[in-house]
Amino acid sequence: MRTEHTIRPSEALQHVRYEIRGRLARRAHELERQGYEIISLNIGNPRAFGLRTPETMRLAMIESLADAEGYCHQKGIFPAREAVVMQQQARGVTGVTAEEVFIGNGVSELIDLTLRALLNDGDEVLVPSPDYPLWTAAVTLNRGRAVHYACRPENAFVPDPEEVARLVSARTRAIVIINPNNPTGAVYPRVVLEALARLAEHRALVVFSDEIYDQMTYDGAEFVPMATLVRDTLCATLSGLSKVYRACGYRVGWAVFSGRTPGAADYLNALELLASLRLCSSVPAQWAVQTALGGFQSIRELVAPGGRLHESRGAISRAVAQSRFLTLAPPGGAMYAFIGVDAGALPDFDDQQFALDLLEQKHVLVAPGVSFNVPYRNHFRITNLPDAGTLREVLARVEELLASYAGAARAGGAAEAGRAVADSARVPSRVISLKRP
Hints:
Layout: H1 23-33, E1 39-40, H2 55-63, H3 78-90, E2 101-104, H4 106-116, E3 124-129, H5 133-141, E4 145-150, H6 161-166, E5 172-178, H7 190-202, E6 206-210, E7 234-240, E8 253-259, H8 265-277, H9 289-294, H10 299-303, H11 308-321, E9 326-327, E10 336-341, H12 351-362, E11 364-365, E12 367-368, E13 379-383, H13 388-425, H14 429-434
Parallel strand pairs: 1-11, 3-4, 3-5, 5-6, 6-7
Antiparallel strand pairs: 2-8, 7-8, 9-10, 10-13, 12-13
Helix pairs in contact: 1-12, 4-5, 11-13
């Protein structure tokens, strides 16, 4: 007789989470199969909201298909890497050649590879809180320990370099900087980035600068490439085609190494070994990189006043300003809003329960704030990719749900007060008298 047995997952996954595509997203798919129309704002997927990849990039890829049938170099095709070098040089980054550029299957793969090549058991990496949760997960999966530095709502989600410095220990190997930030949309001031650069240089930390939203800034916010500030330690700049060029499905990202690269030769060789083990990243879409970086930058129209992303961001800000319950540090960049719920108005608010209720009752899918490794439970993230009208409707539904919470709390409070009065009527007067001043 055959005995059933349980196949258990790796224990390494015990502390790994990615709720953006987790339980709530699975429930949203179930509701869609049942016929409900779900507004999914949990991920930044431009194509889902009608934002297309530039046609020139599609044509470049199609025209090069005959050259994409075999493996390429483990670091990527030369024209793509050289285009990345030229972009970095145009931004003021010096000392970079195609040899310091690695092309990957999206930035996601490169986050994993760059950390795997660096970390030993127990090594620490400074990661922002809130963060894009892949960073924390990748540190954990690669035997490290993520030490979160706070980017507080009251400081518009900008880190305090002095607080960050106090978290550095003898085991700290690297610091992660996400700018413009996901999930908050914060764009870090130059003075903050300079202080973080000096800290990394002083403590010999590798800087991992996640700049996938580098050209998505609004209303004069200044994006400062970290590689222009880091000179005396190794800096890895990570970016790609997914967001700025609306090509998430192409899965093309890059890591560019600058700063003190001679002292990092062994590390870069280890990274090339890992890149070789997966043979190479997908070749066809690499042929779109040169056209993307060297061509017309259509993202500028989308983030300028009157552009789709600018107007959607404005719709979110205005709706929050009119809300009885919501707060927002206006995002200076990226494609998200990390919205807070006033704890004074709704002291028992729980972001995960709210996200589930919003999905079940209002058919809107958002990412609860706890998904982004924060210690508080009163935030949620939405993307500003939909048109302004859709976002106004979404936030109206949010307001309705929060108003129902407030009404239930008042009703519950009134009922509790009524029970207290009834209970006091049954208490002997001598007991009541003891409570009088």
